Amino acid sequence: xxxxxxxxVGTARAAFPRIPLMRVTAVELRKMFNTRSGFWLxxxxxxxxxxxxxxxxxxxxxxxxxxxxxxxxxxxxxxAILPLIAVLSVTSEWSQRSGLTTFTLVPHxxxxxxxxAISAVGIGIVSMLVAFAVGAVGNVVGTAITGxxxxxxxxxxxxIYIVIGNxxxxxxxFMLGTLIRSSPGALAAYFVYTFxxxxxxxxxxxxxxxxxDVRPWVDPGEAQAPLFLFxxxxxxVQWAQIGVTGLVWLVIPMVIGxxxxxxxxxx
Amino acid sequence: MLIxxxxxxxxxxxxxxxxxxxxxxxxxxxGFLGPNGAGKSTTMRIMVGLTxxxxxxxTISGRLxxxxxxxxxxxxxxxxxxxxxxxxxxxxxLTIAQRTMGLPATRVGEMLELVSLTEAEAERRVGNYSLGxxxxxxIATALLGDPQVLILDEPANGLxxxxxxxxxxxxxxxxxxxxxxxxxxxLIHEIEIVADDIVVIGNGRIVAQxxxxxxxxxxxxxxxxxxxxxxxxxxxxxxHAATRSGDGALRTDADPELVGKVALEAGVALTELRAADGAxxxxxxxxLTSDTSxxxxxx
Lengths: 267, 299
Known about the structure:
The complex is a heterodimer.
Chain A: H1 21-33, H2 36-59, H3 67-95, H4 99-105, H5 109-146, H6 156-180, H7 183-207, H8 211-218, H9 220-224, H10 236-263
Chain B: E1 2-11, E2 14-24, E3 29-33, H1 40-47, E4 55-60, E5 75-78, H2 90-101, H3 106-114, H4 119-122, H5 131-143, E6 149-153, H6 161-176, E7 180-185, H7 188-194, E8 197-202, E9 205-211, H8 212-216, E10 221-225, H9 228-237, E11 242-244, E12 250-252, H10 256-266, E13 270-275, H11 281-290
């Protein structure tokens, strides 16, 4: 034995304060971007928004070179890609098995899941603001190139709508993540949800004209479509359609998914 | 201190963990030994709240794991070194844990140094790590919060001999500084070398537990003599059975002192007399688990 003083482990052991939700949220936000897949998803958002802006300048007829055209062109790819980040933020804890560490550092799973939800919604709002900023730059540059007048035809209400629509999309990804808890499975389900379901209901509408009135009550994509149209204020009926489809396709499966997340064994 | 009381976990008809009770004390390394599939990992997952027990409880310094306000500061956990996001760098994984626990950022560099991961290695993605490097990263994560208790599932897996020695010294030093260490292994020699206390588990049940000395003290003697037969008979007269081992020695349950006296009385010249050791714990391990392990039918 040497005479080196043996410093006891875990010195200064005052009672530790509980980990604040703010900190868990900041960590979960970081985790959405610090993986290879997270990085490339974010990079693809930037790339597609720039490509979309360029495409509008090149191909849109001059009279359509307005802010709403740019906003739609930039916003759409972002709205399609962001839910994937929400899906992966939940499923990777199981598929990549990082949950073994996450849920031992923060043993209350509800706090981790809440932090992920807050991060997902926050990203949804911020990214839409970025989309509008990119669209604004495109609008200024595009009209300067073509010499057409600058038209700012997006109202504040439109911005609110499109943010709501985007947050609903992110929560859908989030819901599929909690329900399926496997990256490939949840991603496949997301594509079924966003492309296959509208396709089927669209085909049904084409063959059965009477289905057209029913469709916005059963198809969440159809119900939410008016949010992205820069058209006019939504009617009470349209809000009710968003509410009904949201309850059936989002809230109920989310409640089931959250129960599974809380109870399932982390291996 | 880590206390398990009547811990049981059933999956349908299958009982993975069957009424397990033991205590891992501070200042000591407790080895959790058992063949693969014996229930070690399930027990450890229950301890840290990842799996709900069917009944019983596991407490850390008197509290349930889920009731610890900042668990990483009190319990260092390594359950599976491969359970990390392959797309993150080693440094990033430590940074996530450091931020969650609310530790200074300098702690990450200190831990990387402690487990001998170089700067270049820390910047690589974990998907490209060898198992040994993952184990080192896992140990770094477990030690990050300077906890009093360590729970490590098969930490020596994938380490090279130098790495195993390093791990052993690290855990020994940790216990000497008052820490509680619980480590599992299916390899007897690992446990034999590092542990102070040993809990042996087979088929979800504890089959033996005690200090290493208690478990290793298999009463008995190995003796060699010019005339083995005479000695065997003399021992038999004193009521001690003796069996010949293949290499010309005699094995008996009498202690060496008695064997010496018997040999003197019988006038048998001894060529060797010593307490039985050798296989020790290994023999016990195989014996204790032979009726429960997969190889049971052959044993």
